Amino acid sequence: MVKMAAQLNFTYETKDNKLAYGLYNIPQNGKIEDANCEPNTTQGLQINWGPLEAQHIMALHFSNNNGTTSLNSMMFTIPLMNNTFADAKANQTIQLLHRDPIFATPIKMSYHCTRPQIINMTHTIMDTEVVGTVKVHDVQMEAFRSGNKTGFSAARDCDSTETSDVVPIAVGIALAALIMIVLVSYLCARRRSNSRGYMSF
């Protein structure tokens, strides 16, 4: 289950063989074309829009690793059409891919983030050169859902401030050490005081 606003930023080749920058907003009228819902390890979702002869595609793949789900890859296939990119060279298709786990959240929870995030994109899995970006905001997504719920589960927000267990443990150890030091110092001082008392006789 996915909800987000996304804008692609990429370069394309024009009719006079120059490079131009393009912005493309992912529309809201996409339809689910394919869904792979393996219950335990991987799940995928493909959303299509546009005319049949020039289908635009957004493909998302999720993984479940030891109870933590994440978006493992995001791929866009965008044919450049005359009504949106009039100066683009004919028969040109932009393909952008991000393959690195993002948006991690515990299973049975949804990932939620309202602030804009920019994700670098390459052409293929083997490429390291960044050829475009996708800017997303108002993101909420959840994979590996159980039951027949119609809404999102409780959200894990990207800006939530959660205190690590390490902090209270470290504070407790420091306090215990301080108490031991004070106790030992007190016992040593009392022993010296008693020794002086005996010597005065």
TrEMBL record:
Could you tell me which Gene3D superfamilies the record lists for this protein? 2.40.160.110
- Domain Lysosome-associated membrane glycoprotein 2-like luminal, residue spans: 2-144
Q: Give TM segment ranges.
A: 166-189
| InterPro entries to which the protein is assigned, alphabetical | Lamp2-like_luminal, Lamp2-like_TM, Lysosome-assoc_membr_glycop
For the biological process aspect of GO, one term held by this record is: establishment of protein localization to organelle
Where would I find the Lysosome-associated membrane glycoprotein 2-like transmembrane domain in this sequence?
A: 167-195
**Where this protein primarily resides, as one coarse class?**
other
Compartments, as annotated in UniProt: Cell projection, Dendrite; Cell projection, Growth cone membrane; Cytoplasmic vesicle, Secretory vesicle, Synaptic vesicle membrane; Early endosome membrane
Q: Supply the Pfam families for this chain.
A: Lamp2-like_luminal, Lamp2_2nd
Gene Ontology CC entries for this record = late endosome membrane; lysosomal membrane; plasma membrane
Membrane topology note: Single-pass type I membrane protein
Keywords associated with the record: Cell projection, Cytoplasmic vesicle, Endosome, Glycoprotein, Membrane, Signal, Synapse, Transmembrane, Transmembrane helix
Give the family per the record: Belongs to the LAMP family.
- Function of this protein? Plays a role in short-term synaptic plasticity in a subset of GABAergic neurons in the brain.
Question: Which protein, by its recorded name, is this?
Answer: Lysosome-associated membrane glycoprotein 5
Q: What's the source species for this entry?
A: Glossina brevipalpis
